[in-house]
Design brief:
The protein is of the alpha/beta class. The protein contains nine helices and nine strands. Bound molecules: SN-glycerol-3-phosphate (G3P) and magnesium ion (MG).
Length: 249
């Protein structure tokens, strides 16, 4: 399991601290900050199109209203997904997964695709997202990690693309995480940082998994997690973390 290559830093929802999350601008920002990889969230529109979006509703990250699962792609693509963050980003659109993949290929980036289904769409979100990935992401490029909080999405991902590495996401790892992670066939474990201590890091690593931790925006915390054996830091501030962690002093 340890042959899987993961980067030290991954930009969260692109580079969420400096650009509107889950947009093409945010992916470009992560690249500009030096990130080789980004994480982003994928869910389906009412007409089953995979888009980059974190919330189940449109209000927080666009100028629209209502539920993503009840809104078509055409309606969503008319919305502004940048002005809420800062005026220079006005006009930014909610990207399709296909558009995000094209941009990352152009920028020579890798990614962690989080399957973030609206309720009841756990399996189909994974199925549709991975079909787009198969059609659109060149096989010769580094392959992504597919993660999810939802076991049903991970099971559907395994059926759709058994060759891809799966990531077990949890804010807090449950006591039975070893059996869950093994049963789902995951190769990476992605806990929130708050619960982590050296014993848990050691347990995940000795079980043979790559350990990717979110959302770490503090340089000192990132340094200590990497020193304790964490493989990868998922951060809103990839530039600041790279400067603090990866450059020689
Ligand atoms: O994948 C790490 C992190 O993105 C999981 O939480 O809510 O930010 O998608 P969330
Ligand atoms: Mg996410």
């Amino acid at each position: 399991m340890s042959d899987l290559a993961v980067p030290r830093l991954i930009g969260h929802r692109g580079a969420k601290a400096a650009a509107p999350e889950n947009t093409l601008a945010s992916i470009r920002q992560a690249k500009a900050e030096g990130a080789d990889w980004v994480e982003f969230d994928v869910k389906l529109t009412a007409d089953d199109q995979p888009i980059l979006m974190h919330d189940e509703t449109l209000e927080r990250t666009t100028d629209g209203r209502g539920r993503v699962a009840e809104t078509t792609l055409a309606e969503i693509q008319r919305l502004d997904a940048g002005a809420w963050f800062a005026k220079p980003f006005a006009g930014e659109r909610v990207p399709t997964l296909a558009a995000a993949l094209d941009l990352m290929a152009e920028l020579d980036m890798g990614f962690n695709l989080e399957v973030k289904p609206c309720p009841g769409r756990e399996a189909e979100t994974a199925r549709v997202a991975l079909a787009v990935l198969a059609a659109r992401w060149p096989a010769r490029r580094p392959q992504p990690i597919i993660s999810s909080f939802k076991a049903e999405s991970l099971r559907a991902s395994r059926r759709a693309a058994p060759q891809l590495a799966l990531g077990y996401l949890a804010e807090t790892l449950p006591p039975d995480w070893p059996s869950q992670v093994a049963a789902l066939g995951c190769r990476t474990v992605h806990p929130g940082y708050r619960q982590l201590d050296r014993d848990l890091i050691h347990a995940v690593k000795t079980a043979g998994y790559k350990l990717l931790v979110w959302t770490v925006n503090d340089v000192d915390l990132g340094r200590s997690l990497l020193a304790d054996g964490v493989d990868s830091i998922i951060t809103d501030r990839p530039g600041a973390l790279a400067a603090g962690l990866l450059q020689p002093a």
